[in-house]
Amino acid sequence: MTNLSARLLAGLRQTSGLALAVSGGGDSMAMLHLAVAAGLRPSVVTVNHGLRPEAAAEAAMVADAAEKHGLSHETLHWKGWDHSGNLQDAARKARRLLMADWAVRRGLSSIALAHTQDDSAETFLMRLARGAGVDGLAAMSPLWAERGVTWQRPMLDMTRAALRDWLRAEGLVWAEDPSNANLRYERVKMRRALTQLAPLGLSAPRLAEVARHLAEARQALDALADAWAARSLTEQAGTVLISPVLWQAPLETQRRLIQRILLWIAPAAYAPRGVQVGQLIAALGAGKAATLAGCRFVTDGRGLRALREVKAASPRVRGSLWDGRWQMLGHIPETAELGALGADGLMQVPDWRKMGLPRAALLVSPALWDENRLIAAPLAGFGPPTYSAVPLEPLFGHNSVTLSH
């Protein structure tokens, strides 16, 4: 086992049910070959965004490498680019979504990404230019949960140059994405800037070190937020009851817990901006109802409750996953669709009040449909007991990293 493969193995927190995200670039191809050298047998997945003519050949190269190692491989295709907005951000979000759904369908619990020390330094500079705080400047997370999958970055202590040197020494091939030299992209500009900053002592290793220090500070802040969460938040059937005790916490802790609630109820790549969260906290602290980023905060018989906004919930879909946060367990017919219970569904559940949940919460609870016929609505107590609906991620037991994925 080589030094790099041993470091890769040490960086992986989970090796069972493991998949590798391999694009064909140098970093991810190195991860693939190093994983095999470390004795691992992961599945391999590639996303073809359909944006470059070379992408199909690169996916085929990854498939060939996986086959030579006796590993399973699948190429996923993204066809959702509408030529508006930030292309790289849209591609990243689509890539994560496609890979997460793929992993869940195949019973794979973890996906490893090939980000390096250089990526950490470049991200630090990008966030610094935007005036980010502790969360934004903290090091890229080595481990987090999202959409029912554990994501890992086992190569954050390795450099891009070292990985390519190893590939050359082993006679292994990889592809270079021409966009990596396109100065229209912010990350490429920061990559160039690093070459100018290095002589001043602001090298990629030094910036990555600073980011790690800030990650330690973030962990301390998250630990404090966890302690306050145990005192002030209660999960109930996909909603969150908020105790008045929360408003006694430090403002930074309030912000972190409200962000955690927002991202758990209405999953998104990023939490709303700090100004918006601050305004929300001020309204809630004053006892007012409010809505932000697809999440409603209302007062009912149990006190202040956070729940999904009806009009922001996802439309019906085929499969077992819905709205980015729910999984329906039980036999799902091929023609059935998963979506919100809604007012029409609630009319088919005469005893819904026995569940002790407010109507507003049940309207956006997951339900299984056969056209207009309700098959199951577990949170409303309707349907065969073989069906249940569970959140993909727990509200407690993990820290929701909002800016460092």
Walkthrough of the structure:
- The chain folds into two domains: 3-207, HUPs (Rossmann fold, 3-Layer(aba) Sandwich); 237-405, no CATH class.
- The chain has 13 helices and 17 strands.
- The chain has helices spanning 3-11, 26-37, 55-68, 87-105, 117-129, 134-137, 160-169, 186-197, 204-232, 251-265, 274-285, 342-346, 359-363; strands spanning 18-21, 43-48, 73-77, 110-112, 143-146, 149-152, 233-236, 239-242, 290-292, 295-300, 303-308, 321-322, 326-329, 337-340, 366-370, 373-376, 388-391.
Features:
five-stranded antiparallel sheet; 405 residues; globular; 2 domains; alpha+beta; 13 helices; single chain; disordered C terminus
Gist of the model:
The protein is α+β, with helices and mostly antiparallel strands and 405 residues long. Helix content is 39%, strand content 18%. It is globular and about 70 Å long.
CATH topology of the largest domain: Rossmann fold
Q: Which regions have little confidence, pLDDT < 50, spanning 5+ residues?
A: 398-405
Beta strand %? 15-25%
Count of domain modules: 2
Give the termini separation: 30 Å
- Count the E strands: 17
CATH C-level class of the largest domain: Alpha Beta
CATH architecture classification of the largest domain: 3-Layer(aba) Sandwich
CATH superfamily of the largest domain: HUPs
- Secondary structure category: alpha+beta
Shape: globular
What order do the strands of the largest sheet run in, or round the barrel if closed?
Answer: 3-2-1-4-6-5
Largest sheet: 6 strands, mixed
- What level of helicity do the residues show? 25-40%
- Rounded to an integer in angstroms, the radius of gyration calculated over CA atoms is 23 Å
Q: What's the mean pLDDT score?
A: 92
What is the H-and-E element order? HEHEHEHEHHEEHHHEEHHEEEEEEHHEEE
> Helix segment count?
13
